[in-house]
Predict the structure.
Amino acid sequence: MFYRVHEYKTLFLRISLAYFFYFIARVLFYFYNSNIIIIDSLSEFINLCFIGLTFDTTAILYTNVLFILISLIPFKNNGNPNFQKGLFALYFSTNILAYVTNYIDFIYYKFSQSRLTTTVFDLIENETNKSDLMSSFLVDYWHVFFLFSISVFLWIYLYQKISFNPVDETRNLQYFIFAFIYSIIIIFVCVIGVRGGLGNATRPINMVDAHRFVKKGIHADFVLNSPFCLIRTYKKNYFKKKKFLTEFEVNSLIKPIKKLNDSIYSKPNVVLIVMESFGREYIGAFNKENEIDNFVSYTPFLDSLTNHSLIFTNAFSNGRQSIEALPSILASVPSFKVPFTSSPYANQKIQSLVSVFEDLNYSTSFFHGAPNGSMGFLGLSNILGFDNYFGKNEFNDNSLYDGYWGIWDEPFLGFMKNKLDNFKQPFFSTFFSLSSHEPFKVPKKYMNTFPKGNVQMHQVIGYSDNALKKFFDSAKKEPWFENTLFVITADHCNQFWYPFYRNPINRFAIPIIFYHPNNSFKGVNKELSQQLDIFPSIVDLVGYNKSINTWGRSFFSNRSDQPFSIHFSGTVYHFSMNNFTLVFDGENVIEAYDINDTALENNLINNNIDYSNEETYLKAFFQDYMNRIIENKLN
C-alpha cells in the first residue's frame, strides 16, 4: 500500500514550481545579456536550459532542504491550516531570498562578467553609500524589480492553487514504516540532486563543472544560476598549496625575483592613472588595426596623447573588478577566485611600487574621490605604505559629489593637480578615477556635451577623457611636469558594443600607455602584456638597483621573461602564451585554443596539438602564486 501519496504529490508540485521560475529567470537573464552570451539557435538554447537543470536542482534543493524535511515528517495535524501557513512562510522566505539573486545578476553580470558569488560582499563591505547605490539601482533598473515582483506574485498564486487534502489514513505501525522508507528514498534522491548526480561520487558539482557540460565556454554562465554560485562559494578558502612541479623546476621557469636596473631616467616623478572601466574598445588609437566596421572613438584626448606615447595594444587586465586591479598594477599580485585584498593573506608585507619608491626616497600618495575606505583602497594603501591617502573626506566639498560614488573626476583631478604642485619631488602618485561607472551620469553642465553613442558607457567615457585633458592642460604649466613619467591604464572593462570585444578573452582588453613630455616614448607594442607587467616596467625605468619580487615582466628590460596573460573568468582560468590560450580549472587544462581564437570557439584539446610548454609554465606560475602567498613571501 502506498501511503501519503497525495502529500508526496503536493511536495513534488511545490518544488517543481521552483524549477519553473528558475527557468523564467534563466530566460530573462539571457534577454538582458544576449549581447554577451551568444546563443546561435533555439535548439542550442533549449539544450543549455536542460543542462542548467543540474545546477538548478542543487540550488533548489539546498534552498528548500528544511521545507522538504518538515514536509516528509508524518505529523498528525499536517493538514491543519496553521501548519500549512507555516510551511508557506518557510517556503517563500527561503526561495524568495535565493531567487532575487538571479534578478540582481540580470544587471550585475554586465559589469562583473561573472555570476554572482560571495565575493560581492567583499566589494560592498567598505562602501559607506550602500543606501544611495541601492536607491540608484531600484530607480535605474525599476523594470528588473517589476519583473521580480510579477514573478513572485505569480509563484505565490500557483502555490496556493496546489491543494493539500491529506487522506485520512490509519496511522498504524505499517503506516510509519512505509512513511520512513519513502522519506529515506526521497532524501537519497535529494542528496544525489544536491551533489549533481551519481557521477560525482567524490565531490559535489561546482562552478567549474559548467564548462564540462557545455561545448562553448561562453555558455557556462548561462547554465549556472546565482543561488548555486553563492552556495558553492560560501566560506571557501581558495588559497591552497600546490605541487605540480619541483621547486627547482618552478624557480627555473618563473624566476619571480628579478633585478632590472635598465634606467633611462634619473629619478623622475611618476604619476600612475588608473581609469575606471576604460576598456580598449572605447579608444581609437588602440583599434587602428582591428577590422571593426564603423568604429567610433570616445576618447579624443587619449587618442591625441598616444601620438606622443608608447602604447600596448595587446594588453589585458588580470581581474574583473576594481578591487582586484590595484594589487595587480601596484604589486604584480593578481586576484583570481576572490580579491586578494579580501583574502586571509592580504595583511602581509608586500613589495610594490610604493615600497620601491619609498626606498628611493620618493614621497608617495594615493588619490580616489570616493568616500575614504571605498573598495578597500584605504586599507590596501596602508598595507602598501603610501605616505598620504586623499579621498572624498580630504576633498571636503560635497557640492561636487556625484550622489553615488564620490567626487566627479574633473574636480578631483584638479584637486590632485594642486596637491602635486606642492609635493616635494620626486614623487609617486596614483590616481583611480570613478566617474566612468554605473549609473553612467555626467554633471549637469555636460548633459549634452559628449556623444551618447550606443551604450551608456560611451557618454561617461567622453566625460572622463575630457577630465584627463583638463588635468594635463593644467599640469603642463607646472615645473614638475617636464620631469614626470605618466602611466595610464584601466582597472577592467565594462559594457561592450562591438562583437570583437564581446569575445571571452577580449572582455579583459585594456589600454596601457607610457607617456613622458620629453617624447622619449613613442610607438606601438603589440606583444602580449598584462597589468602584472606595469610594476616591473616602471621599476625598470627609474633604475632601482635592487631585486624585486614580481610575476610580471618589464617591457623595457633585456631579460628574456616570457610574455603571458592570465585571468579568472568567474569559473575557470584563461592563460594565454605563445600560440595558445589554455582553459584551466585549477588542477588540469580542460580546453585549449589557438591564441587568436579570442571567442574560444574551436577547442583543440583533442587535436593532438602540443601545448605542454604552456601548460608547464601555467602550472609553475599557479604553484608559485599559491605557495608564495600562503608562505608570506611577497616581499
The domain at 256-560 is CATH 3.40.720.10 (Alkaline Phosphatase, subunit A).
